[in-house]
What we know:
The structure holds 2 protein chains of 2 kinds. Chain A has 16 helices and 3 strands. Chain A is mostly helical. Chain A starts with a helix and ends with a strand. Chain B is built from 3 helices and no strands. Chain B has one domain (2-42). Chain B is an all-alpha fold. The radius of gyration of chain B is 16 Å and the shape is elongated. The chains are: A mainly alpha, B mainly alpha. Chains A and B meet through α3, α4, α10 and α12 of A and α1, α2 and α3 of B.
Amino acid sequence: MDRKRTGIQAAAALLQNANFKGFFSGKIYQGPLKSVCVPGLNCYSCPGAVGACPIGSLQSFLGAVRFRFPYYVLGLLLFFGALLGRTVCGFLCPFGLLQELLHRIPFVKKTDRFAADRPLRALKYAVLVLLVIVLPLCAALTPFFCKYVCPAGTAAGLLLALRDGLVRAQLGGIFLWKCAVLALIVLGSLIVWRPFCKYLCPLGAIYGFFNRVSLHRMRLDAAKCIGCGACAEACRMCVDPSRAPNSSECIRCGDCVRACPTAALHIGFGERPKEKEL
Amino acid sequence: MKTNAAALWLAIAGAALIGAGIWLGQPAAVLAKAARICLECVGIG
Lengths: 278, 45
């Protein structure tokens, strides 16, 4: 367990949800900070949220009645991606932290390697293309990902419903569907490490495109690597860092770096000599 | 150095897009959406 990373994740989650009084009042923050998208998946309708969700904001631009190219939201995604890639997932995403905490609960059996794992990984790209981009463009005013999938939004709905009778009175079939999706992810998190990040998250899919070029990246010192496979064994995202140190699935959690017996793997900013970047 | 240069250029492109968005008043549109409860997001419909 990496306490330092967990500490950073917790601090990031608290910072992005610093409207603490909202959890008691059931009212969301409406100040100017909400014009800035946070890097991770954090629903802007969560009572604690002080920033905007990048995926929700992107859909609201694409699904607007009068289309405007989303320069601002895409610029933020490009900026975060170029600097950090999926380090955002490993360190800054509140929903990633929630899944990791759930995974720590003792359960019958934990597993990350099963037959359907590889094909399911492609699902997040389908979610990104269909639910976040194509369908909102085709059917105005409907953020399909938020409406039918986003578990962070469902959690926000549950928190709001606890304090706000008006919200509670309006919950219906769609909310039940979303609760079923959330329950599946919660149950899945008890068995598989970060199932939402692996299979469904469109934000992770976007940041994954940047992993090969981002400033914060993994480096393999080929001269030190003895090919023991300890890094691949340690990786809970099922990446083999000795073959693909900057795989789009890597969230830079650093488990492989700690497992390497020869200190051949490095994560950080800047270049190192004798590196292998695949 | 190539990857660092690519990342820097992408970050600069991102910053330029952010600047263009700010110039076009897009943060206000984000705020308008984010400052109200998103009914679809929370599951109301």
